[in-house]
Amino acid sequence: MAYLFVGEGREYLLEPGATLETDLGILEVPENVEAGDTVETHLGTAFVARELRGPDLFHHFERTGAPMMPRDIGLVMGHTGVKQGDRVLDAGTGTGVLAASLGRAGADVVTYEQDPEFAEVARENMALGSVANAVEVRTGDVTEHLDELGGEFDLLTLDTEDAPAVVAHASELLSPGGFLAVYSPFVEATSEVVKTAREAGLDGVESLETIQREMDVGDRGTRPSTAGVGHTGYLTFARNPTL
Ligand SMILES: C[S@@+](CC[C@H](N)C(=O)[O-])C[C@H]1O[C@@H](n2cnc3c(N)ncnc32)[C@H](O)[C@@H]1O
């Protein structure tokens, strides 16, 4: 199990037994390290071992495909109520932040990544996130495997340009009452997803723009940050009819 080593305003994600050379000295992680332990570099700089938490995945997983941000993952979890033992089909894996977050929430996740190198990195990320047993990363184009997947997924999460090709089969893939969640960076893609979900007979199709405004708290007053709009993308949710 990997730990975050926090000290001097820095964080390093390291496995037991790892050695890291930094300008603050060489950090040798003992094999029996535990959360809360302090480990010093050979120059005497102290780092404290801390267990990885959900938002750390976004910052510390090795990146391939652009990962979903914690706020968007929160919306997926809140709108679908994903829980322990749920069966999830996810595509594409990319960095794997969404898949790992769902696995850490207790779901059994099958996730497809069409790029073999990305899939390999994602498998390593699942191990770092302690969800290698909960998240199965399959190499391949999800649209070519829909027939063999069968139905009965409680949740279908999509973050690919060709998401509509999977949405068209959502009612066959999902259990009665199961949820679809699609992340799209552009409004045109969102509109296609919505139309396809309606044509596929899904219920309660809704699309949300995800904007988050950070608050600047200062001596003169408090107001939303002027740094930017904070747009990340659009999330479309829908549900398989029960009957
Ligand atoms: C934006 S990333 C997904 C990021 C992911 N949701 C996360 O939180 O880390 C999109 C990934 O989907 C993969 N992809 C695109 N179309 C695919 C398909 N049809 N089947 C499998 N993977 C696909 C791409 O190679 C890319 O790595």
Automatic annotation (TrEMBL):
Claim: Cytoplasm is one of the keywords in the record: no
SUPFAM superfamilies reported in the protein's UniProt record: S-adenosyl-L-methionine-dependent methyltransferases (SSF53335)
tRNA processing in keyword set: yes
Residue ranges of domain tRNA (adenine(58)-N(1))-methyltransferase catalytic subunit TRM61 C-terminal in the record: 71-217
Single GO biological process annotation from the record: tRNA methylation
Domain of life: Archaea
Record GO terms (molecular function): tRNA (adenine(58)-N1)-methyltransferase activity
Matching Gene3D superfamilies: Vaccinia Virus protein VP39
GO terms for cellular component: tRNA (m1A) methyltransferase complex
PROSITE patterns referenced in this protein's UniProt entry, alphabetically: SAM_TRM61
Keywords: Methyltransferase, S-adenosyl-L-methionine, Transferase, tRNA processing
Pfam families reported in the protein's UniProt record: GCD14
PANTHER family in the record: TRNA (ADENINE(58)-N(1))-METHYLTRANSFERASE, TRNA (ADENINE(58)-N(1))-METHYLTRANSFERASE, MITOCHONDRIAL
Protein name as catalogued: Methyltransferase domain-containing protein
